[in-house]
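Students often ask why inverse folding is considered easier than folding. One informal answer: many sequences map to the same fold, so there is more than one right answer. In these notes we will look at a single instance of the problem. The structure comes first.
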């Protein structure tokens, strides 16, 4: 009997230890899950604020195309993705255009719109054939102190996919990420002009993913100003002022991202890979063909779809123009039938 009772007591103790070990294991697995999740969030520099910040620069001439671009983002967003749009504008933007930009959030509830008055920034800098608004992207780290990362898009773009994938690329070691520009192929000597060793990481400034925190911490904005003063306004050798400033100042801290994120129409995308010198220099065949077949962002470099209905991917642009809050204005402004 005593042996029996002893065995019972021993079994109870074993059971208690067993359940304790099981409970401890569950708790450890739970804690490990949290640690792993936080680790990957840190790696991705993930968006803990719950939205993706996207910036545009515009003036009265580009408000309508910018609205079409924003419309394409919202039409193709995942149901749980929210966007905060920062629209950088000059102080003389017409009131009716300001109102049109704000109307977007009345139609789409997963976004917020903030218009940022850039006042006289870069007003006296050389503009070439562009507007002063091209420079505004160089000020993003300073005017968005609450954002650690930000996607920047030109207004002549159409976004075909949710931007979460682009936003979660790890850029912790870089100032900026972008897609290779064809100057890598055709202007290999241009690096010497703008003061860099080579053109191997020269990117297009129309689609950018900024590491705003790193730029702020290392005072990169002041270096942009130095470049504009020296190469653009004084020596007058820069051909693409904002783009050259980004590539020269950020030279060894630029991350190449796939062609699909900035499918530029001027790069001869109608040609097969084997016939495009620029494509062969800038991208692998797989990257080039994936970009054309399944673009995430179409960039209407060259002829603009609102001015030329024979532009490649014109129907894509028109689709989002028709869905925008200002299609009647677009038809009247650009005589679209």
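Output (designed amino acids):
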């Amino acid at each position: 009997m005593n042996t029996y009772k002893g065995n019972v007591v021993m079994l109870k103790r074993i059971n208690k230890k067993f359940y304790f070990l099981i409970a401890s294991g569950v708790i450890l697995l739970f804690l490990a899950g949290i640690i792993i999740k936080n680790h990957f969030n840190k790696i991705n520099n993930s968006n803990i604020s719950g939205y993706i910040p996207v910036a545009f620069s515009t003036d009265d001439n580009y408000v309508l195309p910018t609205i079409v671009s924003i419309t394409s983002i919202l039409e193709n967003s995942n149901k749980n993705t929210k966007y905060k749009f920062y629209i950088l504008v000059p102080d003389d933007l017409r009131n009716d255009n300001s109102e049109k930009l704000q109307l977007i959030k009345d139609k789409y509830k997963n976004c917020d719109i903030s218009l940022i008055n850039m006042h006289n920034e870069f007003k006296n800098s050389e503009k070439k054939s562009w507007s002063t608004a091209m420079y505004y992207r160089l000020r993003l780290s300073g005017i968005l102190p609450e954002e650690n990362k930000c996607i920047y898009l030109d207004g002549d773009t159409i976004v075909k996919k949710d931007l979460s994938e682009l936003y979660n690329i790890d850029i912790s070691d870089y100032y900026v990420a972008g897609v290779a520009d064809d100057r890598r192929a055709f202007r290999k000597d241009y690096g010497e002009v703008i003061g860099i060793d080579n053109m191997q990481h020269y990117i297009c400034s129309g689609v950018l993913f900024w590491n705003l925190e790193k730029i702020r911490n290392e005072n990169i904005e002041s270096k942009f100003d130095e470049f504009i003063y020296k190469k653009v306004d004084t020596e007058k050798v820069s051909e693409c002022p904002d783009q050259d400033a980004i590539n020269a100042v950020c030279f060894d801290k630029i991350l190449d991202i796939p062609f699909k994120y900035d499918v530029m129409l001027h790069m001869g995308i109608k040609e097969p890979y084997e016939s495009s010198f620029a494509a062969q220099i800038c991208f692998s065949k797989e990257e080039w063909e994936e970009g054309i077949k399944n673009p995430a962002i179409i960039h209407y470099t060259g002829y603009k779809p609102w001015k030329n209905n024979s532009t490649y991917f014109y129907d894509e642009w028109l689709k989002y123009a028709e869905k925008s809050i200002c299609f009647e204005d677009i038809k009247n402004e650009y005589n679209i039938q």
